[in-house]
Amino acid sequence: MSMIQVEHLSFSYDSQQEMLFDDVSFSIDTDWKLGLVGRNGRGKTTFLSLLMKKYPYQGKIRSSVSFDYFPFVVADQEQWTIDVVRSIYPLVEDWQIQRELSYLQVEDDVLWREFSTLSQGEQTKVLLAVLFLKPGNFLLIDEPTNHLDAKARVVLMHYLQRKKGFILVSHDRKVLDGCVDHILAINRQTIEVQAGNYSSWFDRFETQQEKELQEDKRLRKDIRRLKSSALRTSMWSDKIEASKIGAADKGFVGHKSAKMMQRSKNIAKRQQAAIEQKEDLLKNVEEMESLQMKPLNHPASVLISLDEVTPLYDGKVIGKPQSFLIEKGQRIFLDGKNGCGKSSLLKLLVDPKREHRGKIQWASNLIVSYVSQDASFLQGTLSQYAKQYEIDKTLYRTLLRKMGFERWQFDQEIQSYSDGQKKKVMLARSLCEKAHLYIWDEPLNFIDIYTRMQIEKMILSSQATILIVEHDIAFRENVATKVVVL
């Protein structure tokens, strides 16, 4: 057992207007299993990079352990997987990696295949297995669930239950609840450590958040009152100066004015000190404001019907034939292993011209809002993106602010955003669109827990009809009215 000590850590990027971390201090035990949570853009990946000394920073980070980061970059993906494993840990024995892979429910024949031929889920599991085999390391695991389906996430959760000595960045509440014993929570410029799993931390967070919000409201009211008083003092000072002009007895008026001016300055100084003291007490509270969507009401009760439908790609069948109805007001989740054709089916329902077998019937004049799984095509500014999709720019920015965007980020190129922020760009656009049916393909990939819960509450309070692929089990359990297994 040893400690990782962070002392007075401060850091910001040159291109960023605000500090990411400001005078942060805490300690963690290297035997702990920590979940790292926070809004997109608050610095989760940056903090892991600071632990690995990738950037210069102010303060100190003390540790007697070495760090390994997931995902490990595999430069030559044409190698056999066993060679990739040995490049990470040359001393590994075949039986050791085979044992770890069995825990992760991966057949060991993947070791004698080219790494590039493995699915993303298999690659994730192989890299985690070998990194945990390295003795004495503390593992920094950055969002491993993004390429895993729901069943694979459960397997990963059980695997991590057996381990210790890691920081896990994940936005999957079920996974965090099942495998961590401490939470590292990044709020605005701060990092807090609390014992327990995600749910126990969130219960405390909600209670503390409500207290801090109420305290902030009181402080802001006091600040407004003090500033109003300071303004009156300033106006009084101006009147004193004006009274000197045209006075008959210059000496007497000047002496009296000087005394009054000094008194005014003393009052102003005390008022400014009180304002600054109140502002210092303001908390950087991570709020979860309500989101809204305004779906259109279609006269038909069935929006889309599928009868023995299978998408085709270059003439080849993708997945099994599917028959189901999408009825108004339903929230349908498509479930199945990676590669079973979920995304292909969604694309087909958005674009009737795609190749397919079977029969699909769309309700007349059906308006669909679609969010794709891929965000790599995004470019330009938010204003350009809003103009392209003909959505209200003010409403769009308001939604993004509620999702955790800072105002200064609005003028940045979308290419510079994190993966989670790019997904928010697409989701907020969809929320601005008035549609009869919302089709979302893994919309929560990379998106923080706070925003997931905002979206969850919004969906439950709306009458929206949604067809969605999403592997977040907690989200699905809370939102779904119907699950179609492919």
How would you characterize the overall build of this protein?
By secondary structure, this protein is of the alpha/beta class. The longest helix has 46 residues, at 198-243. Helix 11 (393-402) packs across helix 12. The radius of gyration is 28 Å and the shape is globular. The strands form four sheets. Strands 5-6-7-3-8-9 form a six-stranded mixed β-sheet, with helices on both faces. The chain has three domains: 3-198, Rossmann fold, CATH 3.40.50.300; 205-281; 302-485, Rossmann fold (3-Layer(aba) Sandwich). The chain has 14 helices and 18 strands. 41% of the residues lie in helices and 21% in strands. The model has no long low-confidence stretch (mean pLDDT 86).
In what range is the share of β-strand residues? 15-25%
Highest CATH level, the class of the largest domain: Alpha Beta
CATH topology of the largest domain: Rossmann fold
What Rg, in angstroms, do the CA atoms define? 28 Å
Taking strands numbered 1, 2, ... along the chain, how are they ordered across the largest sheet?
5-6-7-3-8-9
Instruction: Give the overall pLDDT as a whole number.
Output: 86
Work out the number of β strands: 18
Based on the coordinates given, report the CATH architecture of the largest domain: 3-Layer(aba) Sandwich
Structural class comes to: alpha/beta
Shape: globular
Uncertain segments: none
Count of individual helical segments: 14
Give the number of domains.
3
GO molecular function: ATP binding; ATP hydrolysis activity
Domain ABC transporter: 4-213, 304-486
Coiled coil: 261-291
Protein name: ABC transporter
